[in-house]
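[Structure tokenization] protein backbone as discrete codes

[Encoding] learned vocabulary of local backbone shapes

[Begin record] amino acids and matching fold tokens:

___
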Amino acid sequence: MDLNSKKAAILGAGNLGCSIANGLHASGVFSPEQMYLTRRRVEKLHSFKEKDFRVTSNNLEAVNNSDVIILCVEPHQLDGLLDEISSAIEPEKHILISVVSGAKISDIAGKVPASVPIARAMPNTAIAIRESMTCICSDATGKIAIDITKAIFDTVGQTQVIREEQMTSATALCACGIAFFLRAIRAASQGGIEIGFNAQEALAMAAQTAKGAASLLNAMHNHPEYEIDRVTTPKGCTISGLNQMEHGGFSSAMIKGILTSAEKAEKLY
């Protein structure tokens, strides 16, 4: 899918929206001049303005000058945004991509002109360094929306096309999941401090070890327990540590956290 001639607008450039902008810029999909970023407090986008991004608080201006519209506002702001921009949306020109948690395609379609291609995408903040896991869906008529959305997000990490009813689960596992894994790395670094490393050393070692574990799974396509078995020996230190973590509820706490986030995400819009 050739995106070189298209322009994109990120409506609601908060933390996630800015991460998307940075990732798309780094990938070369869109140059700064091809991207509009909008936000009520536009002064918070000063660093992007200095890099020649189109920065404005005027959503209609951004929509009128773009082809791909990425909806990045908070769930409670979505209806107001759609009411504001609906008159400017042209079905033969625009594609809408929503990253708004909990908002279904039917919710969006009911507030914009008929036949506008609509997709949902759920990236995470690792998109800023082109390492996002982005889940994508559309309705039965949304092939062009899927194709364009996948072409965009394939450049900033990995994508997975899923059913719309799975998007809430994707929010919990992938978007919220960034925070869960960061907390695990933080805990590992604190353990490192207790056993003799300074804070900077412990964090660097924990982060690289976590990166190595994830990369090992991605490269080898093995189950985690297979790789765990390779580093656990009878009466060894690894199995002792793992068993102590499980006695403390490590796995069950992670599972319960993901379930709780999914339940909360279902009610956000």
